[in-house]
Amino acid sequence: MKITNEKGVDVDDIIGPFDEDATLILVCIVTGGNPTPEVTWWQEERMIDRHAEVRHSEQGVARNVLQLERLGRVDLRTKLSCHASNTQLSQPLTKSVEIELNRESYYKKHFFLLLLRYLLFTLRCDASSR
Question: What predicted TM-score, i.e. pTM, was given to this entire model?
Fold first, then answer.
């Protein structure tokens, strides 16, 4: 079992950092198993994708592509897990990654609004004191 990015490169336990509003594509690939396992994606304890593609070959490769659109602050440190199971008699094989986001993108995006609030507050204070 392995998790790769959209380019087929294996990913580490912590992925990123990504900018806010980015699209994240992860591929979980499972080889072997009889019967071929069901491959699902989970976010924390909730299943978020169960649409696996099975390629019938000698090894029986199953894969599931996860695409998350518009990453945001709520995705920071989110744990995504790929589960592979071909029986209910045992625990599924699991591999997890954690999403890391750039902090700078938040400040760049909101810098103008923060500056505007500061200027308005300063102007109000100056007008009040006269």
Answer: 0.76
Q: In this predicted model, what pLDDT tens digit does every residue of 7-32 receive, in sequence order?
A: 999 999 999 999 999 999 999 999 98
The Cα 10–Cα 82 span in angstroms is 14
The helix, strand and coil proportions of the chain, stated in percent and rounded to the nearest 5, come to 20, 40, 35
Residue extents of the structural domains in the chain? 2-102
Separation between Cα atoms, residue 64 and residue 54, nearest integer Å: 9
Q: Which of 15, 26, 37, 22 is nearest to 88 (CA)?
A: 37
Paired tokens of 22: 């980015």
Strand order in the sheet with 53-55: 2-5, 24-31, 61-68, 53-55
CA–CA gap between residue 83 and residue 30 (Å, rounded): 9
Q: Which residues contact residue 37 at a Cβ distance below 8 angstroms, ignoring those fewer than 6 apart?
A: 30, 62, 84, 85, 86, 92, 93
Is the CATH code 2.60.40.10 the one for domain 2-102?
Answer: yes
Query: Measured at the alpha carbon of residue 36, what is the angle toward residues 42 and 47, in degrees to the nearest 5?
Result: 15
